[in-house]
Amino acid sequence: MKLKSKGAWLIAFSLLLTLALITALFLEASSRYLPGYNHMMLRQMSEELAGRLNRIHLHDSAQLAREIDAFSRAYERVGIGLFAGDGTLLYSTVPRAEPWTMPELLEKLEDPFRRLFYNENVAMVYEIAAGGEKLYVLFDVEAGAMQYLQFFLYFKDWAVLPFLVVPLVLIVSLPALCAFIFILRMTRRLNRLNRAMQRVDLSGEPVLLEDPHRDEIGELTELYNGMIRKLHEQYRHIRQVEEARANLVSQLSHDLRTPLSIIRGYAETLQRGSVLDRDVRVRHASIILQKSDYMDDLLRKLFRLAQLDDPSRAFRMSECPVDSLLQTVMADYVLILQDKGMEWRLDLPESPVRAVFDREGLTQVVRNLIDNAILHGAGGKYLGVRLRREGDSAVIEVEDRGKGIPPQDLERIFEPFFRVDRGRPSDGLGVGLALAAAIVRRHGGRIEVSSVPHVSTVFRVVLPVAPPLPAPEREAPEPERAEREAG
Known about the structure:
It is built from 14 helices and eleven strands. It is α+β, with helices and mostly antiparallel strands.
C-alpha cells in the first residue's frame, strides 16, 4: 500500500475513532460527573415508581400516598404527580388547594428546552403501567436541578443536531484534512525523488532536482544531488582511466616493441659474429644498453606510480636542505643541457631552505620536471630552476621557453598516461608528471603549472617548510656545512 493510501486510511480511522471517543466521553461525563437530573435518569425513576406501585392497591389513597412519599424522599427537588389514564390526578407530592387544570398542565410541559436554557422548572411526563392500568407520572424538577447538558434531549430534536455534530466534525476533519494535504505534498516530493533515482544513467547527463524547502526531504534531495554529481564525476574519471589504460597498453606495446626490435637486431648481428670491427661492436652494444635503459626507465616509472597508490608504503621523511638537493640534481644535467645547446640557470636563496621530505621521492619529482622541460621545451633553448621561501612553504620552479601547453590541456596535464602530443611519436608514456604530482601530494604539498605557448612554461612545486629546530641544533653538522660551502 502506498504511503498516501496509508495516510488516508489512518486519517479516516482516526476521525471515526475521535468522534466515537467524544460521544462516549460526553455520555460518561454527563452521567457521572455533572450534577442534576437528565432525561434518562427520569425515565429510570418512572420505571422504579411503576415497580413500587405494582405492589400496592392503587385505589387505597392512604397506601398510595405513603408509597409515593417514600419514593420522593429518595429524590430531592423533584415533585411527583400521578395521573390516571383519563387525566384524573391520583396523587401529588406538591399540595394544592385546587386540582390541576389542563391549561396549567400544558403550560408546565411547554418547551422544556427553553425552560432548561433559562434555568426554570422543567416538567417531564412518562407513561407507566401499574396494577394492570395505564398511568402517567409527572416529574416537576426544580430550577437548577436539571443537568445543563441534556445530550439525549438534543438528539431528540433534529433541529439542534447540526449545531452539535457539525462542530465536532469540523474539529476533527479540518486537522485531518490539513494532515492529509501535508502527507500528499510529502509523498509527491518523495515520488519525484524516487522517479529521479530510477532514471539515473551514468552514461548520460546527471538528473538533478530542485527543492527549495529546508526540511528532511530537502536535505535528502541535496544529498541525492551531491551523490549524483560524485557518481558522474567518478564514472567520468573511471572512463578516463580506462581509456588511458587502453592507450597505455597500445602505447606501451608500441614503445617497447621498437626498442625490442632494435635490441633483437643488434643482438643477432653480434651473435652471428658478422661484425669484426671492435668499434662497431662497441657501438652496437651501446645501442642495446641504451634501449635497455629506456625500457627499464619506463617500467620503473610505472612501478613507482603503482607503489604510490598503496598507502602502506611510507616515505622515509627527514629534514634536509632543499637547495643542496637541487644542486645535486642539476649537476647531472649540465652536460646534457650543453649538448642540446640550452642555456640553464639555477637560482637559490642566500639562506638554506629546509623542509621535511623523502629525498628519493623529491629527487624523482625534480628530475621528472626537468626531463619534461628538456623533452618538450628544448626549442626554447632555456631551462631555469628556482628555489625560494614563501611564508611556511618552500617553492621550487622549473621553467622552459618551448612550445608550451595548450590552455585546454592544463587541467589534465597531471592525469596518468595523458600526453599533450597525442597521435605523435614521443619518448614518454605520460606518467612522469602524474608520478611527480602523486609524490608531492604524499608530502602534503601541491604542484601547479602555468603556460604561455612559446613564451614560458613554469611548473611550481609548493612544499611545507620544516618547523624551526631548537637552538642547539640550528647549526648544521660539519660535513653538511662543508658541502654547502664547497658548493
